[in-house]
Amino acid sequence: IFNRFPSITKWQWATCEEAETYGYVTAPDGFRMHFHDVFAYQFSKREKRWIRKFGEAAKEAIAAKPQHLAMTFMAQALVALWEEFPAIADGLRLSIHDDITGEWGEDMIELATATVREVMNRPMKCLPLPPAWGMGTHLSIASEAKVGRNWGSLVKLKE
């Protein structure tokens, strides 16, 4: 993956440098996550200099912003459902990672799945996009819905 997308390595290194410089990384919504020991230093006798490598907390620092944004995305969706659609929110049962699971009667399934999908697909206010990209004003993430009487019978709904 690093050969195909070399900018990933640059982004990972920049994230760790941010954590080392400030003691934290800042998510696009301003939330700060603190990290220490993102770099390790080892003296190379052969090269006669100190070599900087990713340290113990590097993986956590690198994952922090995407994980925080995923949590922010999910929290915004759940709050919106609770505040704007209380009848749908009453059927909510479980939220894990990027999944909202609900339990609704046959008469509510179509409305509930359409509403949850609409809310989850909303643009994120903390992630503005450059106008030059022509992709809208803010990042939005497409979602899909599955319906079934139990976990084993879930079927993906067509958009």
Mean pLDDT across residues: 92
What proportion of the residues form beta strands (DSSP E)?
15-25%
Distance N terminus to C terminus? 30 Å
Radius of gyration: 21 Å
Describe the global form.
elongated
The SSE string, one letter per element, is: HEEEEHHEEHEE
Quantity of strands, as a count: 8
Largest sheet: 2 strands, antiparallel
Structural class, please? Answer: alpha+beta
**What is the number of helices?**
4
Low-pLDDT residue spans: none
**Helical amount:** 25-40%
Strand order, largest beta sheet: 1-2
Textual characterization of the structure:
By secondary structure, the chain is α+β, with helices and mostly antiparallel strands. It is built from 4 helices and 8 strands, in the order H-E-E-E-E-H-H-E-E-H-E-E. The chain has helices at 7-22, 58-84, 86-89, 109-120, and strands at 24-26, 32-34, 39-44, 49-54, 92-96, 99-102, 146-147, 155-156. The strands form 4 sheets. The protein has a two-stranded antiparallel ribbon. Strands 3-4 form a two-stranded antiparallel ribbon. Strands 5-6 form a two-stranded antiparallel ribbon. The protein is elongated and about 75 Å long. The chain starts with 6 loop residues before the first helix and ends with a strand.
